[in-house]
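Module 6 notes. Inverse folding takes a fixed backbone as the condition and produces residue identities as the prediction. Think of it as a translation problem where the source language is geometry and the target language is the twenty amino acids. Below is one complete input and output pair. Work through it position by position during the lab.
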């Protein structure tokens, strides 16, 4: 794989309250092909390398399926969806 295909992505996940929550999010992302996944449940920050260029909307939906709220920085897309 070429490094030019790798996209460093960041999301904010609300509702994680423990290390097990973070591990669940991490495993979900890794199963989708994300690499270098870093999840901080205390701050809600989730960072990963999107080596397959999967759309953030699909990634967010898969995390929301776990019961969390996902916010994409500088987007507002998910904010509008949640407030609708």
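Target side of the pair, the amino acids:
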């Amino acid at each position: 794989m070429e490094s030019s295909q790798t996209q460093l992505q960041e999301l904010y996940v609300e509702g994680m309250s423990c290390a097990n929550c973070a591990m669940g999010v991490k495993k979900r992302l890794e199963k989708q092909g994300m690499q270098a996944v870093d999840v901080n449940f205390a701050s809600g920050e989730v960072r990963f390398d999107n080596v397959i260029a999967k759309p953030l909307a699909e990634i967010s939906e898969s995390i929301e399926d776990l019961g969390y709220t996902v916010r994409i920085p500088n987007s507002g897309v998910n904010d509008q969806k949640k407030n609708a």
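Reference fact for the lab report: The two ends are 40 Å apart (CA to CA).
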